């Protein structure tokens, strides 16, 4: 099912695929919110920009987000102070507060109708034992000179023990915003090409050649704005990030809805906000997070959210169900800046966690300043080539241990499944003639067979029975049951098998 955003945006401009070889000052790979924000700022400065997108604009991460624009990134500021010191935490906060203002300025200046609304944002707990963490975060914010409020009552339909309130945060319809950016870009002679897959970027003299499935773009600067960077060497982003999947539902109810944006911070995590739908407010509930590629089931994903909706809104009608993926770095900070010291003039922004609406704006400002040769005060926060001691053992395990297991050991294990074990409308891996084969049987028993080896770096894929996809536990690529690549970093489809009857 489409997300609410994809289903309710009017696509007032259309784009073609790259029709011929072209030249530009800047080539941007990816037309999500990060890529188009970079393109917006650069075209405003008079740069000739070409944006290349594999799908439609915003069809992946931006079209599936919650659309919260906030500097409140769960409980984060005490962690930042402890890990990097007060100046660092203060700058992170200022950068994100500035991003809220920048987004608001763009919306006003370009007259983008995107349901933008200022709202308070809250991190809450229903457990007395977690109040200490809330109070600690408030002290951390106090030490940064930021005024947050401790509250014990929210508009949510259940009691809480306490919450931290950030005032003057915002929410919007992310795809309406993105289409507004796209119009502004093309009005300033920026070019956007969709359904154009970039396969490689190579240095040639003083420029870069961006290779696509058919043609090339030669540019002075390249910005890698795909969700997960797909050039493995140099850069090595696959050793520094994993992807996490979470779920959202849109709920209609006759009950009064809480205004504001809400999230708790220990499992099970639930996130709430309202959205406009056919002239009225509906409720979005998010949660059910897990590392992409790890097994899940309906009950632990959409089922969990539906249960929450029906508990408090017995008349709830579920209008939409969708899921989203986020790139998580080892130290919980994005990578923004040059792609690698071996690729000067190629830039990257990735690892925005679940807070991409503000962080992509911060990243776009940093990269545009770098291209213009200007110093950006927040550049040092997210240096893409940073090398830091690994302190976060959970994230390290998520990336290194599980990837190694899937890359080497799982491929050697005998498959416990037999062909007959797979029910209709389900899938799994079986062994046929000593080869692992990924099987999906549709509702009528028709069989689709693929080689279940990820085309990114060769990890063994796992079957996702909720979305009927093949997901990679290593870096989060995803393929449909026919093997078509849906999500990066892989960009090639899976081989498929024709089975002898
Ligand atoms: Fe990297 Fe699959 S996404 S091996």
Key traits:
single chain, 501 residues, FAD/NAD(P)-binding domain, D-Amino Acid Oxidase, Chain A, domain 2, Rieske Iron-sulfur Protein, 3 domains, 8-stranded mixed β-sheet, 9 helices, binds FE2/S2 (inorganic) cluster
Description:
The protein is α+β, with helices and mostly antiparallel strands and 501 residues long. It folds into 3 domains: 4-64 and 175-237 and 332-390, FAD/NAD(P)-binding domain (3-Layer(bba) Sandwich), CATH 3.50.50; 116-170 and 241-329, D-Amino Acid Oxidase, subunit A, domain 2 (D-Amino Acid Oxidase, Chain A, domain 2), CATH 3.30.9; 408-497, Rieske Iron-sulfur Protein (3-layer Sandwich), CATH 2.102.10. Helix content is 25%, strand content 30%. It is built from 9 helices and 25 strands. It has helices at 4-7, 33-44, 77-84, 86-110, 131-143, 174-187, 302-312, 356-372, 393-412, and strands at residues 22-29, 49-52, 68-69, 117-125, 149-151, 162-171, 191-193, 198-204, 207-212, 216-224, 241-252, 261-264, 270-277, 280-291, 317-329, 335-338, 346-350, 426-432, 435-441, 447-450, 462-464, 469-471, 478-480, 485-487, 496-497. The strands form 4 sheets. Strands 3, 4, 5, 6, 11, 12, 13, 14 and 15 form a 9-stranded mixed beta sheet that branches. α2 (33-44) links the parallel β1 (22-29) and β2. It is globular, with a radius of gyration of 23 Å. The model has no long low-confidence stretch (mean pLDDT 94).
């Amino acid at each position: 099912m489409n997300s609410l955003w994809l289903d309710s945006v009017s696509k007032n401009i259309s784009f073609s695929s790259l029709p011929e070889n072209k030249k530009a000052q800047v080539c941007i790979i990816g037309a999500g919110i990060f890529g188009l924000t970079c393109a917006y700022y650069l075209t405003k400065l008079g740069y000739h920009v070409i944006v290349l997108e594999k799908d439609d604009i915003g069809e992946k991460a931006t079209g599936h987000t919650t659309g919260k624009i906030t500097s409140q990134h769960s409980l984060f500021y005490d962690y930042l102070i402890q890990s990097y010191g007060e100046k660092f935490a203060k700058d992170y906060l200022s950068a994100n507060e500035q991003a809220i203002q920048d987004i608001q300025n763009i919306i006003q200046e370009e007259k983008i109708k995107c349901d933008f609304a200022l709202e308070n944002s809250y991190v809450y707990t229903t457990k007395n034992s977690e109040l200490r963490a809330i109070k600690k975060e408030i002290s951390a914010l106090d030490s940064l000179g930021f005024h947050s409020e401790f509250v014990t009552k929210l508009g949510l339909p259940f009691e809480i023990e306490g919450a931290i309130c950030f005032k003057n945060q915002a929410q919007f319809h992310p795809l309406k915003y993105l289409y507004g950016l796209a119009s502004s870009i093309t009005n300033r002679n920026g070019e956007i090409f969709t359904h154009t897959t970039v396969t490689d970027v190579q240095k040639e003299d003083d420029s870069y050649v961006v290779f696509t499935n058919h043609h090339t773009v030669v540019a002075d600067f390249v910005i890698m704005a795909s969700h997960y960077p797909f050039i493995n060497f140099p850069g090595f982003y696959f050793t520094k990030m994993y992807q996490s999947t979470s779920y959202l539902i849109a709920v209609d109810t006759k009950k009064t809805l809480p205004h504001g944006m809400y999230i708790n911070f220990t499992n099970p995590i639930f996130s709430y906000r309202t959205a406009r739908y056919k002239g009225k407010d509906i409720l979005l509930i998010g949660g059910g997070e897990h590392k992409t590629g790890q097994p899940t089931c309906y009950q632990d994903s959409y089922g969990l959210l539906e249960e929450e909706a029906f508990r408090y809104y017995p008349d709830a009608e579920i209008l939409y169900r969708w899921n989203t993926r986020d790139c998580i770095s080892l130290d919980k900070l994005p990578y923004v800046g040059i792609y690698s010291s071996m690729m000067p003039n190629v830039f990257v922004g990735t690892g925005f966690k679940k807070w991409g609406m503000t962080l992509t704006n911060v990243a776009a400002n940093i990269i545009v300043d770098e291209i213009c040769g200007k110093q950006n005060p927040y550049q040092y926060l997210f240096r893409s080539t940073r090398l830091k001691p690994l302190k976060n053992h959970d994230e390290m395990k998520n990336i290194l241990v599980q990837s190694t297991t899937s890359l080497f050991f799982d491929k050697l294990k005998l498959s416990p499944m037999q062909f007959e074990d797979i029910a209709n409308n389900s899938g799994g891996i079986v062994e046929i003639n000593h080869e692992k084969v990924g099987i999906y049987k549709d509702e009528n028993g028709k069989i689709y067979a693929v080689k279940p080896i990820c085309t990114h770096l060769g990890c063994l894929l796992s079957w996702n029975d909720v979305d009927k996809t093949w997901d990679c536990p290593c870096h989060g690529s995803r393929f449909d049951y026919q093997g078509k690549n849906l999500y990066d970093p892989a960009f090639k489809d899976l081989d498929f098998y024709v089975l002898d009857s």
